[in-house]
Design a protein that fits this description.
About 0% of the residues lie in helices and about 60% in strands. The strands form 2 sheets. Strands 2, 4, 5, 6, 9, 10 and 11 form a 7-stranded mixed β-sheet that branches. It has a 4-stranded antiparallel β-sheet with strand order 1-3-8-7, with no helix packed on it.
């Protein structure tokens, strides 16, 4: 299963961006979709997740500013980022966990997107 992320860019503090990540492949179902980020010199960290039931989870530093959503029909997850701060600058990665079809049934997959750069600067 391959993921393609897009939507990053340069934005001024207080601005907004919307990231998208679509999955392609022989997907049977998706359990969890999420966004992570990695700033220079730091470890990758969780930003937000959304389950197949629509339950969302956010880390404290993005609550009230970021919104994760999904389009199940398109196997796509979104991250709407508002009130961006310079400390939000990072490479953002999407992650999708689910099951894909095989010849004999299905297997679990855990796939990552290629990363999209978000830079918040005046």
């Amino acid at each position: 299963v391959q993921l393609q992320a897009s939507g990053g860019g340069l934005v001024q503090p207080g601005g907004s961006l919307r990231l998208s990540c679509g999955a392609s492949g022989n997907i049977r179902d998706i359990n969890v979709m999420g966004w992570y980020r990695q700033a220079p010199g730091k470890q990758r960290e969780l930003v937000a997740t959304i389950t197949s039931a629509g339950t969302t989870n956010y880390v404290d530093f993005v609550k009230g500013r970021f919104t994760i959503s999904r389009d199940s029909a398109k196997n796509t997850v979104y991250l709407q980022m508002n009130s961006l701060k310079p400390e939000d600058t990072a490479v953002y990665y999407c992650n999708i966990v689910g099951r894909r079809r095989t010849t004999w049934g299905s297997v679990t997959f855990n796939s990552w997107g290629q990363g999209t750069q978000v830079t918040v600067s005046s």
